[in-house]
Design goal:
By secondary structure, the protein is an alpha/beta fold. It is built from 27 helices and nine strands. It has a domain of 185 residues: 3-Layer(aba) Sandwich (Rossmann fold), CATH 3.40.50. The chain has a seven-stranded mixed β-sheet. The chain has a two-stranded antiparallel sheet with strand order 6-7.
């Protein structure tokens, strides 16, 4: 039988390696090296196979020998980098990827892997630059667009990240993890409906995608999709019973559904799996409060606060329960997060369930004041745009302001506003001096508390003779108070004192029922003030 040449042995080794016959590949590469110890390709590929088999030290040594023999060997530098990456030696891997690129400037795979390694090292700008170069060289590289999306998401560039994940999915329609990551970005953008669609697509492509079920459940807490949210959480738990986030999401959905006892059991299971997860303690406290188990609720809130003392909401819950001093305003982050979670079913719950009609009450009061039309209108706390729909016919320009990206997205879908601003009421007003003929605040001051700054800013933002129309929850004595509902109430005496100090005149102040809460009417006031005319003292 004719003995194989070194090249024939090498070709056979490559065939074995491609077919997954790694032991046979090792023997064939070694046969080459017995006859040609400085065969760079055999050294290189044997090193790669040994790394595949978990023999990293020997594999790395052989790849380095190949580079020493051949010198300019970009493929070996690339595989050296891959092996170093797999061992967690990321800095050294980055150096090797850069060497491969220096030797082969169009090496898109090296750019892509370099970007991924730099992303793990936290060097996001350099990672993004490398990944952009990778997809510029080879645009139809779905993995490159995906990795670029991950880096952009981590850097907070949400719009660009969504575009990158969208391109990855467009190139490879069977890419469930890209659909999942797109859903995460859309959720962070305050687009719950689009995020849910992305998670559903990920699940359709990968029916056992536990993480996608979990995230879908986290979005579908309420509204028309509450039952789907419960089903998604249960499926996530079936796929991984030890996922604390899935039990937490199930608890949130069950509480909104009204199954408070089951919700409490889910929160406790989540806490058992992750005792340091403060959101589960906070949610448990809220559920216990629903059952009037006040000492237990306060204990849960205290634990949440101990675990996350800098988290704004934990102290706020304790203040509302009377367990610590109340702040003059709720934490901005708490309000934004509350309404982001509420956005998907806000209209259905508030209008349908709580008989909320503050926008209609404000519209009646403003109409009765007979302002000249059209007006430039600022709608503070615009939410999903319920006021905007009513006041659009009066408006020359209608601007909405809200802290919640989720609410602003819903308002944007209504298409009634000329401009939408993500900001708190006082800050937004201070940036727009003498820009408005009418400022609206429907059920906004219940999440403000002390109104001094808002009144002063409104006086600056209104043109002479402009109107300031708002609602408050009624308080008999004192200036304002934080109630267990997590909402503030203000007294009309306090409002009138602030109005006088800001040179407003009272047009009307009428007692009303704003909405229902736990089946009981919530008493409030609809107030319309007029800014001083030019020359008035």
């Amino acid at each position: 039988m004719t003995e194989q040449t070194p090249q024939q042995s090498f070709d056979l080794a490559v065939q074995h390696q491609k077919a997954g016959r790694l032991q046979e590949a090792v023997r064939a590469y070694r046969q080459v090296l017995v006859r040609q110890p400085r065969h760079a390709d055999a050294l290189h590929m044997l090193g790669v196979v040994l790394c595949q088999m978990g023999q990293h030290d020997a594999g790395l040594d052989l790849i380095r020998q190949a580079i020493a023999v051949k010198g300019d060997y970009p493929e070996a530098c690339y595989n050296l980098a891959n092996a170093l990456r797999d061992r967690g030696q990321l800095d050294q891997a980055a150096v090797a990827y850069r060497r491969a690129i220096d030797l082969k400037p169009g090496f898109w795979e090296a750019y892509g892997n370099l970007g991924t390694v730099l992303c793990k090292l936290g060097q996001l700008d350099d990672a993004i630059a490398a990944l952009k170069r990778a997809v510029a060289i080879k645009y139809d590289n779905a993995n490159g667009h995906f990795s670029l999306g991950v880096a952009l998401h981590q850097s907070g560039r949400l719009d660009q990240a969504a575009d990158a994940f969208g391109r990855a999915i467009g190139i490879n329609g069977n890419f469930p993890v890209a659909c999942f990551c797109l859903g995460c970005v859309l959720k962070d953008q305050g687009k719950p409906d689009e995020a849910a669609a992305a998670f559903r697509r990920a699940i359709a492509l990968k029916p056992d995608y536990q993480e996608a079920y979990c995230k879908l459940a986290g979005i579908l807490h309420g509204g028309a999709f509450i039952d789907e949210g419960i089903a998604a959480a249960r499926q996530a738990i079936a796929l991984n019973p030890n996922c604390p986030e899935s039990h937490y999401n199930l608890g949130c959905a069950l509480k909104i559904k009204g199954n408070v006892e089951e919700a409490i059991a889910s929160y406790r299971r989540s806490i058992a799996l992750n005792p340091r997860a403060w959101p589960a303690y906070e949610a448990l406290g809220e559920a216990l409060e629903c059952q009037e188990k006040i000492p237990e609720a306060i204990e849960a809130f205290r634990t949440a606060h101990d675990l996350a003392p800098l988290e704004p909401s934990t102290g706020y819950h304790l203040a509302a329960m009377g367990a610590r001093q109340a702040p003059s305003a709720p934490p901005r982050e708490y309000v934004a997060r509350l309404f982001d979670s509420y956005a998907g079913y806000f209209d259905e719950h508030l209008v349908g369930g709580l008989n909320y009609h503050a926008p209609q009450l404000l519209h009646e009061a403003v109409t009765a004041a007979a302002p000249p039309l059209p007006m430039d209108i600022l709608d503070l706390g615009c939410g999903t745009g319920l006021c905007g729909v009513l006041f659009r016919p009066m408006a020359r320009r209608l601007t909405g302001v809200d802290l919640s990206p989720g609410m602003l997205q819903k308002s944007r879908q209504r298409g009634v506003y000329d401009e939408l601003i993500e900001d708190d009421a006082a800050s937004a007003l201070r940036t727009r001096p003498q820009s408005a003929d009418l400022i609206l605040a429907a059920d906004v001051f219940i999440y403000v508390g002390a109104l001094d700054d808002v009144f002063a800013a409104a006086a600056q933002a209104l043109r002479p003779g402009g109107l300031f129309a708002f609602t408050i929850e009624s308080l008999e004595t004192g200036d304002y108070i934080l109630r267990r509902t997590r909402r503030y109430a203000q007294s009309i005496a306090y409002v009138r004192r602030l109005a006088q100090g800001c040179r407003f005149t009272e047009v009307s102040a009428r007692p009303v029922v704003l909405r229902k809460d736990q089946g009981q009417p919530v008493e409030g006031m609809v107030v319309v003030l007029r800014a001083a005319q030019s020359g008035e003292q």
